[in-house]
Amino acid sequence: MNHEEICAKIKDMLVENLRIPAEELEYTSELFGDDIGLDSIDSIEIIAGIDNLFGVQMTGAARENFQTIETLAKYVEEHKE
Amino acid sequence: MSKRVVVTGLGLICALGENTEECWNAVQNGVTGIKEVKTVNAEGCYANLGAEVDSPNEKLSGEDYDRSSLLCIKAAGEALKDSGYEVTEENSDRIGVIIGNCVGGAVSIDKYYTAKKNGGEVKNTDVLKMPAAALANNVAYHFGLNGTTANIVNACAAGTISLSYAADLIRSGKADAFVAGGSDSFSSLAFAGFHGLHALSANACSPFNLSNGITLGEGAGILIIEDYEHAKARGARIYCEVLGSGVSSDAHHITAPDPEGNGQMLAINRAIKNSGLTVNDIDYINAHGTGTAKNDEAEFLSLHTIFDDNDHLSVSSTKSMTGHCLGAAGSIEAVFTVKAVCDGIVPPTIGYTEENLETLKEKAGNIDFVPNTKRVKDIEYAASNSFAFGGNNASIVFAKKPHDIPDRANKERIFVTGIGELIGKPRVEISSDNYKEYGIKMAFYRKLDRFSQLQLLSGMKALKNADITITDDNADKIGIVVGTADGPLTEVYNFQKNVCENGTAAGSAFAFPNTVYNAAGGYFSIFAGIKGYNVTNANSIQAGLQSLCYAADVIRNGDESIMVATGTDENTDVTEYLYETLGVMDKKLLGEGSVSIVLESGESAEKRDAKKYAELVGWASAHKSVEFGKLNGSESALKTAIENACKSAGVTPKDIDLVCGFANGVTEVDDLENRVFADIFGNIPTVRVKNECGEARSAASAEQAAYAAKQLESGEYKYALAAAFGVGGQYSAVVLKKV
Predict the structure, then answer these.
(1) Final residue of a domain: which of B364, B399, B434?
(2) Is 90 exceeded by the pLDDT of residue A1?
(3) What is the pLDDT of residue B622?
(4) Interchain CB contact of A46 with B (< 8 Å)
(5) How far apart are CA B203 and CA B34, in angstroms?
(6) In this structure, is residue B190 part of a structural domain?
(7) In B403-449, which residue ranges form alpha helices assigned H by DSSP?
(8) Which of B23, B219, B313, B700 would disulfide-bridge B16, Cβ 3.0–4.6 Å?
(9) Domain with B562 in it: what CATH number?
(10) What's the pLDDT band for B672 if we cut at 50, 70, 90?
(11) Tell me, what's the ipTM?
């Protein structure tokens, strides 16, 4: 799976699980900033979603990894077995 | 002077025992009911504890109902017997049923879906076990009670709000007594949801101590709340007095309490003030005390802020033994609070080690948190607190001896000053433009399920239409009543489906907050900033119209000067599937929406020179128990609701010149309307709003009133009446007058 595919899968998961309108979600949108406005409950859902999709555990991962779809994808690539 | 209201009967079932005495003995002796869970598969979960009732459904009651109903019938049976209340044909319409509940028929949805998935047997009538609306109805039907009903579905505050509402209705003379309290069963919904939120404790919950999460429980607590004069006349044994209560909303966050405790303090202070007491009078508080860090911190702060000058206050959380019984919690704790007052015993909070006791000393200050062992002391006045998801708070005060409480009832005129409609069939179109109109950002609205979206948009539309801006000055003078037939059933069904397919550990933290029925009213209060009364009543199709009755009572009780009364129901693929499965109506008849009506006291409307659509001059609800899902045999209650609404308006049916009916295209319903309306009104125009909006259930019943109000504003009519039905025999009616 290449970087683009991982990003696409994460985006689909965010759209599906967190009801974020697809047209407002770019790979570089600030997820927890003013762009999308996610909160701590959403981060629990992201951790579960990433685990489901890629078998990658993000519990306890540093905050900066959750910034954008790009950073999430990078974390997945680095930790995927 | 305000009417005396008393407690004359108690019924209790929870993990500690199957009657009041068993539970009371256990709780005062610090016995815990928390064990490893049996009825939910906790595989893969980091927690596996719960406080379940041992008895299976068959042992609770004979009917094929959802477990919440069966637990409730068991406790109600004990309470009625304990009260010696003899229900006869003549008096049965003066005793009603008000039940608090959180998860509705989640256990039945779980069973239904699991059976379907595994090729097991399901019945079409299983659908009737799913909505919370069945609960009060099933209890009323079981015991032949024909007073009005309500299902207060305000999550963890539901059990306390139901007691408060029962006492208020008795004080205003609308009933002699209520079977009131709450019930909830142990569900994979709640377990998976709190697990998803990481709010379950891996160990037994430890309120005001380790505070690392809740432990769920199940059960039912029922109190017979009765007019003192009525109780005296029948020679009843009186446990104690029910004094004032307070209900409020945080307007802060959908799951977390306001860390500053402002909403909690408003509810507690209202309860004390409405009781004619001061903070130094309170001897005991049965705290909400869930054991989550956020609750315990906020509650510590609230209690210290209010009671630090009180040198004789004991506070305990019996949840440390019963677990958190959600919609039943407030009423189970009310039973313990009543017993505490009667016996002069404060039950403890358990779970403190020697080391914990040292820490507690620092945190407790002047307040005695009754760690580990009960306290024997004289209790004149005791309060029970409940705080819930959605930011709903409630507090109620019980007293050993009679105490005059301030009579706050007023004769204010009540006007319709705003209307917000969002209703249609089969579906209502919602786009991002709808949200933009009220400045609702995507980060907020994306959290909402359809039920909450509809509620938020109609509520904001009504406030705008009424030209009301919420400010620090008026926020706590405005309240909300949401009525619904089916609530967020789609979200519940989908949550449960995911848990059935993927296991308890897969429960979604994102979806769970929306599965509670009061989330919609919660989101509305948060966005709008409304901090007053906040209640959701799940009571079939008529709940939208019953909202107006409830809201009008809140204004007349002097609790708020403005109320937003709403009816909301969604229509989704799941709704269509369930109605089709049940076979009561063609899915093409269904509609959906939310209709909010702003009711305002004359004083408030005059002060801000508000536009008035109409005056609400009469309102009434009535009930004739038939099986939930049925109508046949309940016709007399429709007549009673209409007659009583006219009577309270000071008019006769002859004065009514426009009637808004509830006909929905189902033959039995349409025939009932034709028959009763012809009988009461003869030949006058009847409007059928459901021709346009379909059977949008609670939204449609609220729309009946909205339509009537608009006709009065623009037309030549003088008096209009709207009447609505609920399956199981609950009816409401309102009379509106041209201004």
Answers:
(1) B399
(2) no
(3) 98
(4) no
(5) 10
(6) yes
(7) 432-437, 442-445
(8) B23
(9) 3.40.47.10
(10) very high
(11) 0.89
